[in-house]
Every structure is written in structure tokens, then in C-alpha cells.
Amino acid sequence: MRPGLNWYEDCAVGDAFTTGGIVVTESLIQAFAGLSGDFFDLHVDDDFARRLGFRGRVAHGILGLALTDGLKNRAEHRFRAVASLGWNWKFGGAIFVGDRIHAEVSVAAKRETKRPDRGILTLALKVKNQDGKVVQEGTNELMVERSPV
Questions:
Q1: What is the side-by-side strand order in the sheet with 118-128?
Q2: CA-to-CA distance for 64 and 41, rounded, in angstroms?
Q3: 3-state secondary structure of 22
Q4: What is the DSSP string of 73-105?
Q5: Where are the alpha helices (DSSP H) in the chain?
Q6: What is the pTM of this model?
Q7: Measuring CA to CA, which of 22, 38, 43, 78 is 20 to 30 A from 7?
Q8: 118 near 65, Cβ under 8 Å?
């Protein structure tokens, strides 16, 4: 793969890159709670989270996934995506206010479709915090445009 937008043909199994990072702020967690309607105490109440053994509030797992997709979509290496077809995702560790996360992305598989203008990539992603700990990981099936030439 090269920097910039990549066609299906530009990607080979094993190609990999690391995204930039983002700091998970209190305002991101509050905004996501408002957007999703998920005001579960673990996400909005430090005392509650501490009583459960966490050091403080924990970001929504799905917020971590959403931020990861955003990091992927604005990385130096990107895909000419048509649609995301699905996610298989695991929440392996907590993401806290102030954590800086980034993703390691690799092309795990490729397959053609019935349509000659697109193919499907299976991306493997590992989300790590500032300490290098994997906090989330999984795969994304991504439909990508094929080169018209």
C-alpha cells in the first residue's frame, strides 16, 4: 500500500500501518453518552467506577470502536471504501479519560465480489493505549473500490 487513497488492487494481505492517535477526553465520553443515551454509571460516575475496581470512569466500548474507525479513515494510508460490511470486535481492556489510543491495522484477507468494480478486504485492528496495552481488537469487513483501469 502507498500513502493516500488505495484501490482494492493496491492492497496485499500482510500490508500494515499504524494510525495517528487521539486522546479520549471527558467531553468525548459525555458527548457519546448524550448521543447514544448510554449514561450507565461506569461511564459517567467516577465513584461508581472506583467501587467496581477501576481507577475512574471507563469510556464506552463502542466509543473506542467509533474512534478507531475514525482514526482508520483519516490515517496516512486509507482505502477507497464503498461500505463497511461488519465488525467482529472485542473489548479487552478499559479506556480511561486521558488515555491516548491508536490502532495498528493490517490487511488480513482479500476476496473479490460478483461486481467487477469492488472487492472486500478483511482488516485486522489492534487498539493500543499510550502504554502499548491492547485495549480493543477485532476485524472489519470493508468493501473497497477496484481501479477502473
A1: 16-23, 100-112, 118-128, 134-145, 81-91
A2: 17
A3: strand
A4: HTSSEEE-EEEEEEEEEEE-S--BTT-EEEEEE
A5: 26-36, 41-44, 46-51, 61-73
A6: 0.93
A7: 22
A8: no
Q: Which residues pair with 118 in a beta bridge?
A: 145
Do residues 49 and 56 make contact, with C-beta atoms less than 8 angstroms apart? yes
Interatomic CA distance for residues 97 and 4, integer angstroms: 31
Query: One digit per residue, pLDDT tens: the chain, 149 residues?
Result: 899 999 999 999 999 999 999 999 999 999 999 999 999 999 999 999 999 999 999 999 999 999 999 999 999 999 999 999 999 999 999 999 999 999 999 999 999 999 999 999 999 999 999 999 999 999 999 999 999 97
The grid cell for 45 is 460516575
- For cell 470493508, the residue is 142
97 is written with which cell numbers?
Answer: 479519560
* Sequence ranges of the domains in the chain: 4-145
DSSP for residue 146: P
The CATH classification number of 4-145 equals 3.10.129.10
